[in-house]
Amino acid sequence: MSETINLSNEFGLNFGSNLANNQVITYLNLECPDSKAWFLANQHELLNLVNGQDISWHIKLWNKDKEPLQNGNIANKFIDYSQPDYALQSIKSIFETQDQLNNLDNADVATYLQENHNLTLNPNAEKVDKQTLKEVEINGLTSVPTVIVNGTQYIDDQLAPIDELLKKG
User: Quick check: 124 and 10 in contact, CB under 8 A?
Assistant: First the structure.
């Protein structure tokens, strides 16, 4: 499956060595409460595993065509993959203040992200969105979050803490 996912720095956030024994790919949406819950519960362990060279972790932000995720689709376009550490902190910060994002009108999201998270529109946002949608279609992804561990997809009730998913894969 990972052969059909573009893991270049242009189309996602990449942490760790590609030579690591395990590969974790996460598809998230910044307005999705399940994405928020899984990310916030697992981010520290994921970074520990990256630092221990046990995994390579790839984050993809999916602009999912679902009405309750529209503000997240806008916010996803403000994450600049060329600055991975800053982008990771921005994702964490947006998830931590997700209620504010959820309560905005679509027209106010860009200003909110600029004023409250010091973010600007990623100049490659449309190109990234097209690539992500292509990957989603090719791989039959249906929901966010989707966590792919060593080629195996986990969604919905299958999602578990990363250490449990690594034992399965």
Answer: yes
Any idea what the CATH number is for the domain that residue 80 is in? 3.40.30.10
DSSP bridge pairs for 149: 24, 152
Q: How far apart are CA 73 and CA 79, in angstroms?
A: 11
How much is the pLDDT for 111?
98
Domain for residue 7, yes or no? yes
- Listed in sequence order, the residues at least 6 apart from 104 whose beta carbon sits closer than 8 Å to its beta carbon are 71, 112
Q: Tell me, yes or no, whether 160 lies in a domain.
A: yes
> Is 22 a member of any domain?
yes
Number of domains the chain contains: 1
Q: What is the pLDDT of residues 20-31, one digit of tens each?
A: 999 999 999 999
Half-sphere exposure of 124 (CA within 13 A, CB side): 13
Residue 17 lies in domain: 2-164
CA separation for the pair 74, 63 (Å, rounded): 8
| 169 assigned to some structural domain | no
- The answer to whether the pTM exceeds 0.85 is yes
